[in-house]
Amino acid sequence: MRAAGALFEQRACAELQRAGLKLLDRNYTTRYGELDLVMLDRDTVVFVEVRHRLTSSHGSAAATVNATKQAKLIQTAELWLSHHPAHANRPCRFDVVSYDGPIDKAAMAWCRQAFEAV
Known about the structure:
Layout: H1 2-18, E1 22-29, E2 34-41, E3 44-53, H2 67-83, E4 92-100, E5 107-115
Parallel strand pairs: 3-4
Antiparallel strand pairs: 1-2, 2-3, 4-5
């Protein structure tokens, strides 16, 4: 399953780069969790969570980014910003890129500003 996750992270990164975003970091890991992709959209730092679900019997891939996961992403993003002071004062957002379906047929859905840090 880890290999599939890496594949979808690579797909998402390539699509976002085609859309003009610049990769800053990948798989940034802390005790709170991991940031799949950290990208720059003009002057906005974008923390991207990439999700894949083979079937939607228990909900969509995007729906798995629940309040608990969001809190972990926010904490991890705060640490990333503290370790990258050049970006600390930039606007930030949290995006979710999700893929639902079989690996070879899963279409990408990109939810910009999927949630906010409060």
